[in-house]
Amino acid sequence: MYCPIELDDLLYLTLQEDVGIGDRTTDFIVPKDARCKVELLAKADGVLSGINVFRRLFELQGAEIQNWQDLPDGSKIKKGDVVVSFEGNARAVLSTERVALNFLKHLSGVATLTSKYVEKVKDLPVRICHTRKTMPLLRALEIEAVVHGGGHRHRFNLSDGILIKENHIELVGGNIATAIKLVRERVSHLERIEVEVNTLEQFKQALKAGADAILLDNMSIDDIRTAVKKAKRHPVLLEASGNITLERVRAVAETGVDIISVGAITHSANVVDLSILVSRI
């Protein structure tokens, strides 16, 4: 999985953005060598993701952590749970807490929403996957959050797999077979070629042209069900995407598709409410 920036570099930049040239309020009030006890409390139920990022931010800011205890990523948390406790330098804690909470609340929100989708289809042979609809530079962390919520990985970026979309097809004259042929001539026989379609006619063309996987985009339940039936005698993987809500995901899964990709689990997840309490040592 290729990521264009090291995690520490990303975290350091987020700290710089928030702290600037120094936390003046904290530096004026809190002695340099003061230490404190920290408890991270859950104020809502959810699924945890981002604990390593949370800790690393305090380390980068020089918190000199001691007596660290936490619940691991993927844990189901309840309102009132103590998620993390530790002792550290008070100045570093106060100047880091907002950035650390921003990451943990967002990533736990992604994991929590993913888990709700997974729960809806847990008894069916289908995978819930992410899409590329992620926040810039946070994709690797958000994908990990999807996994912590019980979901599965899709392609990480454009170089991670072949997916022929409608604009590719448009630029070769609307011919799906031509698009597949152009790709097939350039890739290894071990690599799958997936094609996005949004009508049953396009689906038939992709199936006839030998697509290894077909993405059924924004299709009705009836059309998805028809596509699944037509694909029965073909060695093709079927993925459904587009308008996949919590209310609709079960019906989509029951059609028999292999994969359901959901943009909402990364781009529309609500944060999990978490709060840091600090006490003087």
Task: Describe the 3D structure.
There is one protein chain. This protein has 281 residues and is α/β, with parallel strands linked by helices. The protein folds into 2 domains: 7-116 and 269-280, Alpha-Beta Complex (Aldehyde Oxidoreductase, domain 3), CATH 3.90.1170.20; 118-267, TIM Barrel (Alpha-Beta Barrel), CATH 3.20.20. The chain contains 11 helices and 12 strands. It has helices spanning 7-19, 24-29, 51-60, 90-120, 139-148, 166-170, 176-184, 200-208, 221-230, 249-253, 264-267; strands at residues 35-42, 46-47, 66-70, 76-77, 82-89, 127-129, 162-164, 193-197, 213-217, 237-241, 259-261, 274-280. The strands form 3 sheets. The chain has a 6-stranded parallel beta sheet. A 4-stranded antiparallel beta sheet has the order 3-5-1-12, with helices on one face. Strands 2-4 form a two-stranded antiparallel sheet. Strand 8 (193-197), helix 8 (200-208) and strand 9 (213-217) form a beta-alpha-beta unit.
Keywords, please?
4-stranded antiparallel β-sheet, Aldehyde Oxidoreductase, domain 3, 12 strands, elongated, alpha/beta, TIM Barrel, 6-stranded parallel β-sheet, single chain, 281 residues, 2 domains
Alpha plus pi helix count: 11
**CATH homologous superfamily classification of the largest domain:** Aldolase class I
- Report the order of strands and helices: HHEEHEEEHEHEHHEHEHEHEHE
The structure class reads alpha/beta
> Architecture of the largest domain in CATH?
Alpha-Beta Barrel
Number of domains: 2
Give a short account of the largest sheet: 6 strands, parallel
Strand order of the largest sheet: 6-11-10-9-8-7
CATH third-level topology of the largest domain: TIM Barrel
Ranges where pLDDT stays below 50 over 5 or more residues in a row are: none
CATH class of the largest domain: Alpha Beta
